[in-house]
Amino acid sequence: MDYVNTDTMDKIANEIKICTLCTLSDSRKNAVPGEGEFRKKLMIIGEAPGFNEDQSGKPFVGMAGMILRKTLMKCGIDIEDVFITNIVKCKPPNNRQPKNNEKDTCSKYLARQINLLKPKIICILGNVAGSYILDIKSISQHRGKILRKNGIDYFITYHPAATIYNRNLILDFENDIKHLAEIINKN
């Protein structure tokens, strides 16, 4: 008998919102499944929700999110045209990096989202997402480039939060997003 995939984005989001498969669910206010339309066939994946995301249940709404949204708009990508999410769907305590078991647990949801959306390109934000998804050791070596894995194109850049702590990275981040916009608009 053939397997019929009955996933929808709403179904996955609802499962994420009630998930208790790891200890992150103990301290969260809201799980953050991700959001957005999908007109550009672009998916953006970060590390994990922060305080503002935990409060709202929406991805990238804090300071790093404002930088990301402003940069996308400046480069001609409307945030409403992309699906944006994180590897981990709940805020880690004290904004620590997600533990491997937390990433492994949430990656099942992320894989289902990718499988359903079938993005043309996935933009990876930062070292945590880059090392987990692509097993790369340094964003600096790969930023602004496309890596292909399992038939999917991944575009690598800094996490916008990195530009808060190191203002020297903002121009590189903006140039990377401009290059990403060029790639998307070519196709």
Shape: globular
Strand arrangement across the biggest beta sheet: 2-1-3-5-4
CATH topology description: Uracil-DNA Glycosylase, subunit E
- Unreliable stretches (pLDDT < 50, length at least 5) are none
Please compute the radius of gyration using only Cα atoms. 16 Å
Beta-strand share of residues? 5-15%
Spell out the helices and strands N to C: HHEHHEHEHHEEHH
The tally of helices reads 9
Overall pLDDT score: 93
The CATH architecture can be given as: 3-Layer(aba) Sandwich
Class derived from helix and strand content: alpha/beta
Show the helix and strand layout.
Blueprint: H1 9-17, H2 24-27, E1 42-46, H3 51-56, H4 63-74, E2 83-86, H5 100-117, E3 121-125, H6 126-134, H7 139-142, E4 146-149, E5 152-157, H8 160-165, H9 170-186
Parallel strand pairs: 1-2, 1-3, 3-5
Antiparallel strand pairs: 4-5
